Amino acid sequence: MQESFIEAAKKRVLLFDGAMGTEIQRLNPKTEDFPDGKEGFNDGLNLSQPDWIKQIHRSYLEAGADCIETNTFGSNKFKLAEYGYGDKTVEFNTKAVILAKEVTAEFSDKPRYVIGSMGPSGYLPSSNDPTLGEISLDDIQQAFALQAEGLILGGVDALLIETSQDILEVKLAIEACHTAMEKLAHEVPIIANVTLDQYGKMLLGTNIQAAYTTVSNMNIDVFGLNCSTGPYEMAPNVRWLSEQDLPILVMPNAGMPQNEGGRAIYKMTPRDIAEALENFVKQYDHIRMVGGCCGTNPQHISTLRRALDINYKNKY
Asked: Which of 236, 234, 238 is nearest to 255 (CA)?
């Protein structure tokens, strides 16, 4: 029987995958590739172009990733409702997990894990904004609970609340995960990732100390940082987190985004990312998982795999 995700993370540093969205864009999807021609519905490609998504998952596993994230970043009820799939939230997320698990089953060289991606709701419950803040907390929690239920039914090895901008929403998402687990009588680890700007603050001003203190006692298994910045901007916050109790996941962008012709360009090379994360892992024992966010691709993950293997001789 395969060792659990948490057991594996205690023994060795686990490598996550890189970006999904930019890999989808590299395939130059056309309007007709999306369900019902709804352009931009990247998660919908699980249904209309499953082989594309499987190939992206496969490319990261071939690069040496231990963990792949489901293509469900925008698959909470609110986001799915924008494309007409809100009432199918549970089934939609379950299918995405099954898709990812079909790909991990192709690899028998070492344990591979499927992580359920849960991105933001699209609202900011802490905000006074009349559009983004005026929605009931119960509705937000229920939207996440349905997503978590679908991901758990599909068989994820962990749930990842990621790219979080509002610490109140993180709390609601964590509570939703526990609600889904209780309903299904099946527990999986919870990872709570927040996103900080280059000044170390979440969108609404929460710093790392406040964010960690708010959720660390909510029965989560891992706390982490992803998106918004590259690894160097994350360094002070990673240092602080390394002095706390929970294991850490670090998933930076390939540097700070640079605007070129209206597009965000990320310029850190695979070697740059590998060196930065390698230094983090050497310095901080609490970092048990690393990976990449925006602008990272299978080449970044492959280079990071080699760096981890050379330095830590990961045993399976």
From this structure: 234
